[in-house]
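Sequence in, structure out.
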Amino acid sequence: MKKKLIIVESPSKSKTIASYVGNDVLVLSSKGHIRDLATTGVDGLGLDIKDHFKPKYTVIPGKQATVKELIDKSKGRDVLIATDPDREGEAIGWHLAEVLGLSSTESNRIVFREITKPAILEALNHPRPIDQHLVYSQEARRILDRIIGFKLSKLLQAKIKSKSAGRVQSVALKLIVDLEKEIEAFIPETYFEIEATFQHLKADYLIPEKMRLSQSEAEKIVLESTNPFTITDIQKRDSKRNPKPAFITSTLQQDAISNLSMSATRTMMVAQALYEGKEINGEITGLITYMRTDSTRLAEPFIHEAQAYIEKNFGKAYLGKYLVSTKANAQDAHEAIRPTSLSRTPESLEPYLSKDEYRLYKRIYQRAVASLMSPAIFEITKVTLSSGGHIYQVEGSVEKFEGHLKMFTESKNKDKLLPHLEVGQQLNAKDVLAIEKVTTPPTRYSEATLIKELENQGIGRPSTYAQIIQTLKSRDYVELEEKRFKPTKQGRLTSEQLDIFFDKIINVEYTSKMETVLDEIADGKQKGSHLISRFYNSFIPMVEVAEKEMKKIGPKQTGEMCPVCGKPLVIRKSKYGEFTACSGFPSCKYVKKD
């Protein structure tokens, strides 16, 4: 029997898996992608436009040694490809199979969604062929991104000195710019609310829906709201607060940003480390399931384990039903992000984890368990008071049952207690005040709210959000002001020019529909070449119009003249920063020294 070779993506993952499979199995890493589209052919796209947009692939610079090692070590061995369990991982696996000369119909692909010994050994027993439909979908995505990225980036660099554009990146920028314009156009309005203060409570005047009180209206109501106030109604009801589903990629990022002050990029780096494995008591094991997922499904074995854990630690009353929120375009059959074993409590792992690893693991652990617990129950009391024909209301709430909130010991609820009151009882207000308010403009996106908006609009994939945000920052398209995104002048100019010439494709609706089509390719319902052909044939005419009509912005003049040739000096940019040089370049190469 031939010895086995397992190929994974990351070196740390290979180390973890090697500790499970014994000395007879060699585990190597591809260190991520090994091939990408070439930069040859029409416009350097790496595509044969005339042959159904057939892609040409080449080994990524710097990966030749890795590829050679994989080819050499695969000789005489049965190769199993264990790249990540998503479309990108499937595509990397296909590229590995291609360079290693493996058959596309051979069962040489294994998949696992947690890096634990039982999961790896189980995966070894169920190899399957590479899923070509997933590969086609990822290939179509890469080709679309290449076409848009290359063509638009080249255009914007030449015309307005912007660094890049992208299929999803530019839509994210558009969201930020459009919101900024909405904020600038906002006209604040003054309105009034009325508050009656009693000895042990404050009640608010019940304003009719969609009505705003003017100052004169408010003052009239205040004058007519005289003592005593009479309690006309007391209603009590129970309100349930259901637990949230276990984390998916986007909600994990949002939660970590809001509660742990960790950026999306940092969150994914820490989650990757927890997934790939940590050494605990001399054994390396993965602590969470795969962290790139948009499914809230949980595996049956984990549900049973969690139910036993909940009943043992809290009692039967705390057991709940798991509510899976299924998105129409959820990708693949992934699980939500959860701990690989509930026996590895956050407290037991704290000595083995960094501060960020511990904090993120604790959030994942608590959220996964809480998702299977019962709702919290609050008793809501609504008291209605009347004076001079005007209605006031006040609400109180008391926690009757902790339910899933018991998992979050650090975030206790504060009850809003009301005194004992009865219908017909009369109360004297100490003050009845008209309070001036001013409407506020929409709030700029924070990192968390931008991710939420991208997800809600179906733009891109959660696994790409961190990179999208990082790109917008690195291209100087956005800046942070009080931890919220504000477009720079260059970011605004970029979005506005794309709006003028590419509004049919750089928009929310089109980008979201594109994701749906990519899903259909993954399901075998569409061909990638058809999508690319339709897109290319509508996109290139837009590029040609923009090349002719988009105004070219020259470098900014300093007001000085070149001492060599007398032409104006201008500010130019390089990868090292800005510098002052002659506008007559290349005929005059004068550069002003600092």
